[in-house]
Design a protein that fits this description.
The structure is a single chain. The chain is an all-alpha fold and about 900 residues long. The protein is built from 32 helices and 2 strands. The chain has a two-stranded antiparallel sheet with strand order 1-2. A hairpin with a 6-residue loop joins strand 1 (about 90) and strand 2 (about 100). The longest helix has about 50 residues, at about 1-50. It is elongated.
Length: about 900
């Protein structure tokens, strides 16, 4: 007896486990239908509001306000009007309330709710109106139907509990003494009767009949399960076949009556049956064959009905059970007996979304539904997960990924252009793209993967720009990013041959494809993306080029190789100027010229002679390629040509200075010649900019005037820096004899001073800076004259340079006399020209000489040189006082014309 009770309780809970998901799905479907209908009604109301202006009066098909007025006048008129409007109407007339219970068909194209005039409430204050929706007279309202359905389901469950309690009570009282076979047969007969009654009620009470049919099939399945599992009355094979028959019958009933709930029940029972009735034999072929039949049944249902949740349940059960079995029971010897089933499941769930799209109403769907998306994207993913568990090797997995990609690509090519399936076709195209990308690194090395991804990225970028698809362009970005990742993680140390190695070739493909993408984006006016890809491509180009030089070129020739590489880069940019972003190309070329200048500094520091070895050839190649780059910048706007041309000039001045210095050292010339060699090219450049602008501006002569003042100023800064260095050089003129002022060093210093003085008076200086330039020239002249004086003392009086010059009486006396002579000169000029400013300069110089006499020369009064300083200064002051009296003071307006004459 206890076994019977346990069996009944087990049957009850098994039935509950089967029915509960059905309840959830049914409720989900009903609630979804209600929400959808409410949405449709809201959209209709919004559409009517848009069509009808605010406050306008619209005469509806039925006007309850007029009926109310008629009621107040005469009840018989109301009855007649109600019969005309709706013959089946029942009009109940309380004091001010009209309730119309019969359906009123709206005119064609009208909303389900009839519009009322804006002033309707004023005409029928307090009136309550109920306008039923279309179809309410043919069946109960949706809420009532849902309530009836719930009551039927609850009734079935309560009956289960009652039957179980009744059986327990009857067993305790000894009412049942029948064999177990007869008991189970009785339950089965009762269930079949309930199934027949539910079929009979399918039209009159559809929801009740469907619920009763589902419950009856559930009872039959539980009875079969109890006969097999608890009492061993039915063999496993027979039980499984009977379960298949029941599931098939349930599926037929579902399709016939268009009942998704019955279909879900059939699928749940079908997938659960082999699990519940398993004997533990581990026969995976039988299991997957059975699941194959079930999935074919799902495909057949999808041919006639659109039940997305049914498809999703089948997908979850199929792959869930399959992967669970693969984790626990798969072994390599079962590969070929399992793989065909996996291919079958993959094909079935690839086809089902297309059947749903075929049955979809309203023509082409703009997007896939959630469940279709789960199947479309989940199917290849779960299939590949299962394949990874079965194959476990790199190449087979690569072939599998490539196979999935090819199948999806074929499907996409066939269906993408067809209206109902376009969204599915695009989805399969993306799946093909992803799996093809995934197959590449599995099948090839990292370097080959870089090339494939980069080329694919360029192709997809071209396609995305041509079709205007943002996602395709994003895929191009992703592929370039993946190519970069694979390039960085690959081992580059295995390369043994320059250029002809996988590392350089893959990097070259990455650089060229990025530059190609930049050209495509530039052609389509997407300047931001063009700039990003251009910088990305140039970075890879320069990186792989320099890396290859450092790895394979000897240390003594690396700088020459980099110089040629930079020149080639500038020339290639000149050729690509028309196809890329002009501004970016121009600035990149300018950066190339700046890099050459910096490379020249490095070469001078490390080698000294820039033309040694292959240096001369490298610089000649750069000269030709650099001119080609400058020619391409002739029409370039902006300041990039200015930077490029200026550093082109500075580079050659620097290189020639270094070469001349090396020649002077090689010929063992004095340091005066060495310094003159260093300063001469820069001085020549400044002279050329000042007097030969058309020559030095070649090949950008037409635009050179735009940046000529800036180039001149920069060159002058370099010249002044060299002039400052020359002040500390003794200036040995060997092998020539030292001649004051006519030696190489002092000639260069005087030349630099003269150029600065000329520059301060030319048109290249802004008018606001002329006075500052004049002051700079005056200071440089004073310092130059003093420096020449001390250097001549060093050479003529044999005073050590520069250690003993400060304490030498000859040096101090010479400086005093020279400063005094300069002061006298300015005094005389200021007096003769009546220029008080010039005269004051002379006065300052004389005052400076006097201060020097008091502080320094006073210590040398014990020798002739010190005495001569004082006497010479005094005599000069007397002469100046006689020849150059103080000029009269002048107003600022009178001084203005002479302001430029402060410096002779």
């Amino acid at each position: 007896m206890d076994e019977l009770v346990i069996g009944i309780v087990a049957l009850f809970f098994a039935g509950l486990a089967l029915v509960f998901p059905l309840l959830v799905v049914a409720l989900w479907v009903k609630v979804g239908a209600l929400l959808k209908r409410v949405q449709v009604l809201e959209e209709d109301i919004v559409a009517l509001n848009r069509q009808q202006p605010l406050g306008a009066r619209v005469e509806p098909a039925f006007q309850p306000e007029k009926a109310i007025v008629a009621v107040r006048a005469e009840a018989q008129v109301v009855q007649a009007a109600a019969q005309v409007v709706a013959p089946e109407a029942q009009v109940v007339v309380p004091e001010a309330q009209v309730v119309i219970a019969s359906p009123i068909e709206a005119p064609t194209g009208a909303s389900r709710h009839l519009p009322f005039p804006a002033g309707g409430e004023e005409q029928a204050t307090g009136a309550s109106r109920h306008l039923p929706t279309r179809g309410e007279g043919k069946s109960a309202p949706i809420v009532a139907r849902l309530q009836d359905n719930l009551l039927a389901i609850i009734g079935i469950l309560v009956i289960f509990v009652g039957i179980a309690a009744f059986l327990r009570y009857g067993a305790s009282e000894g009412w049942f003494s029948f064999p177990i076979e007869l008991r189970l047969s009785g339950i089965g007969v009762a269930a079949i009767g309930a199934l027949g009654f539910g079929w009979w009620q399918r039209e009159k009470r559809r929801e009740f009949g469907l619920t009763l049919q589902g419950g009856a099939i559930g009872v039959l399945l539980m009875t079969l399960f109890a006969a097999f599992k608890f009492y061993e009355l039915v063999p496993a094979t027979v039980a499984l076949y009977m379960a298949v028959v029941l599931v098939a019958a349930c599926g037929v009933l579902a399709v016939t009556q268009n009942s998704g709930g019955l279909a879900v029940l059939a699928i749940l029972a079908g997938f659960a049956s082999p699990l519940l009735m398993s004997t533990g034999s581990g026969n995976h072929v039988a299991l997957f064959s059975y699941y194959g039949v079930l999935n074919l049944a799902i495909l057949a249902m999808a041919w006639w009905r659109t039940w997305p949740w049914l498809n999703l349940l089948g997908f979850i059960f199929t792959f869930g059970v399959g992967i669970f079995w693969g984790v626990l029971g798969f072994s390599p010897d079962k590969l070929w007996s399992t793989l065909p089933f996996l291919v079958l499941f993959f094909a079935l769930y690839m086809a089902i979304p297309f059947l749903n799209a075929r049955l979809a109403r309203g023509g082409e769907r703009k997007a896939m539904g959630f469940i279709d998306a789960c199947l479309v994207f989940g199917n290849p993913i779960m299939t590949y997960v299962a394949l990874t568990m079965m194959l476990m090797e790199k190449m087979p997995l690569a072939y599998a990924a490539f196979g999935i990609a090819m199948v999806n690509a074929i499907v996409a090519a066939v269906f993408m252009a067809r209206a109902p399936y376009s969204s599915l076709g695009r989805a399969h195209a993306w799946i093909a793209f992803v799996f093809a990308s995934f197959a590449v690194p599995l099948a090839f090395s990292e370097r080959v993967t870089v090339g494939v991804f980069a080329l694919a990225g360029l192709a997809i970028t071209w396609s995305g720009l041509r079709s205007g698809q943002v996602l395709q362009r994003a895929a191009g970005y992703l592929l370039f990013f993946l190519a970069t990742i694979f390039f960085l993680v690959a081992d580059a140390s295995t390369a043994t041959t320059a250029v002809a190695n996988a590392n350089f070739m893959s990097g070259l493909i990455l650089a060229l494809t990025a530059l190609g993408a930049a050209a495509l984006y530039q052609h389509h006016k997407d300047h931001d993306s063009a700039g990003l890809f251009f910088v990305w491509g140039m970075g890879w180009w320069v990186g792989i080029g320099v890396y290859e030089i450092v790895k394979f070129v000897a240390n003594t020739h690396q700088i020459d190789a980099v110089l040629v590489f930079l020149g080639a880069t500038i020339a290639l940019l000149a050729l690509a100027y028309r196809f890329m972003a002009a501004g970016l190309v121009a600035w990149t070329m300018a950066l190339g010229f700046i890099a050459v200048f910096a490379l020249g500094i490095v070469q001078i520091v490390e080698q000294g002679d820039v033309f040694v070895g292959h240096g001369l050839f490298a610089w000649m190649v750069f000269a030709a390629l650099g001119l080609l780059g400058l020619f391409s910048l002739k029409r370039s706007p902006g300041w990039a040509p200015a930077w490029a041309h200026s550093f082109w000039l500075f580079s050659w001045a620097m290189v020639l200075s270094a070469w001349l210095v090396e020649r002077a050292v090689a010929f063992e010339l004095g340091e005066g010649w060495v310094f003159a060699s260093a300063l001469a090219p820069t001085l020549a450049l400044v002279v050329a900019i000042l007097f030969l602008p058309r020559v030095v501006g070649f090949p950008l002569t037409a635009a050179f005037d735009k940046w000529r003042p800036h180039t001149m100023f920069t060159a002058l800064v370099a010249l002044c820096a060299l002039w400052l260095v020359g002040l500390f050089v003794a200036g040995d003129a060997a092998p020539l004899v030292w001649i004051p002022l006519l030696n190489p060093l002092e000639l260069m210093l005087i030349g630099a001073l003269a150029i600065v003085m000329v520059w301060t008076r030319c048109e290249l200086v802004h008018k606001n800076l002329k006075s500052l330039g004049a002051s700079l020239g005056a200071i440089m002249m004073f310092v130059t004259v003093s420096n020449i004086t001390l250097r001549n003392v060093h050479h003529l009086a044999d005073v050590a340079w520069p250690a003993q010059l400060w304490g030498s009486p000859v040096a101090q006396t010479s400086l005093t006399i020279v400063w005094s002579l300069l002061g006298v000169l300015y005094w005389v000029l200021g007096s003769k020209r009546a220029n008080r400013g010039v005269w004051l300069v002379g006065a300052i110089l004389m005052g400076l000489a006097l201060v020097k006499l008091m502080l320094i020369d006073r210590s040398h009064l014990g020798d002739l040189m010190g005495i001569g300083s004082f006497m010479g200064y005094g005599l000069l002051c007397l002469v100046v006082g006689y020849l150059a009296p103080v000029p009269p003071s002048r107003t600022p307006e009178q001084q203005a014309p002479d302001s430029d004459e402060a410096t002779p």
